[in-house]
Amino acid sequence: MALLTVKNLSVGYESQAVAENISFSVGEGDYLCIVGENGSGKSTLMKTILGLMPPIKGDIERGDGLRQNEIGYLPQQTEVQKDFPASVKEIVLSGCQARSGFHPFYSKAEKAIAKTNMERMGISDFAKRCYRELSGGQQQRVLLARALCASEKILLLDEPVSGLDPKVTQDLYQLIQKLNEEGLTIIMVSHDIAAAVKYASHILHVGHHVFYGTKDEYLESAAGKAFLLQEGGEA
Predict the structure, then answer these.
(1) Are 57 and 22 in contact (CB under 8 A)?
(2) What is the mean pLDDT of each run of 10 residues along the chain (235 residues)?
(3) Do the beta carbons of residue 4 and residue 23 sit within 8 Å?
(4) In this structure, what DSSP letter does residue 130 have?
(5) CA atoms of 69 and 72, how far apart (whole Å)
(6) What is the C-alpha end-to-end distance of the chain, expressed in Å?
(7) Which pLDDT score is estimated for 68?
(8) Does 1-66+153-235 carry CATH code 3.40.50.300?
(9) Where are the beta strands (DSSP E) in the chain?
(10) Which of 31, 29, 25 is nearest to 62 (CA)?
């Protein structure tokens, strides 16, 4: 059964659609990459799936008992967020509030979840360090650990490697792939078409022409071939 099903969705701002006629489904263990030209509505779609923005029309259905608070989210970072004056442990722990709601103290179980996810992301040694003192790649690992604290089944990532150098980018992609191999469903917005066709099981292309299918189907599609040529990849 699909964890998430989107039917004839249109998304945008104040009834002005930026992406229309989007339909796709995501099953357990899928790795879906959302690609498309700049301004095609990829991030807007992500926010609509999360319930942060209302859809203009269409339906978003959660299946298999999936609740909104079982979806982890890693948004694009702003410059202000990069300078946030909190410890790594505090930031990671705050992800638990997405699942259980705000409360003044964390339970032993929540602290254990945060500890486990810091270990998974290789940031345990940074637990007491201030977040703003870390490198860009380290900060993304912290935010990924935070998102994992909020996630039970699905992780949504919006341009997670933006601004990172090639080595750190590759490390982060491999980390995300490992999470997927461990059973976590991934939905990732990416401008990196080469990474999308390398790691994803499915591709959603939004823009003037909407495509949804497996990675192999995308590579054989007119939309996939045209976009790969445009982005300098192999058609």
Answers:
(1) no
(2) 91 90 95 92 93 93 80 79 85 82 78 94 94 92 93 90 90 94 94 90 91 94 84 57
(3) no
(4) B
(5) 8
(6) 33
(7) 73
(8) yes
(9) 2-13, 16-27, 31-35, 57-62, 71-74, 154-158, 185-189, 202-205, 211-214
(10) 25
**In this structure, which amino acid lies at residue 162?**
S
Residues 28, 59, 187, 134: is their CA dihedral positive or negative?
negative
Looking at residue 186, its amino acid is I
Q: Which residues contact 80 (CB under 8 A, 6 or more apart)?
A: none
Q: Do residues 75 and 158 make contact, with C-beta atoms less than 8 angstroms apart?
A: yes
Residue with tokens 């039917």: 7
Q: How does DSSP assign 32-75, residue by residue?
A: EEEE-STTSSHHHHHHHHTTSS--SEEEEEE-TT--GGGEEEEP
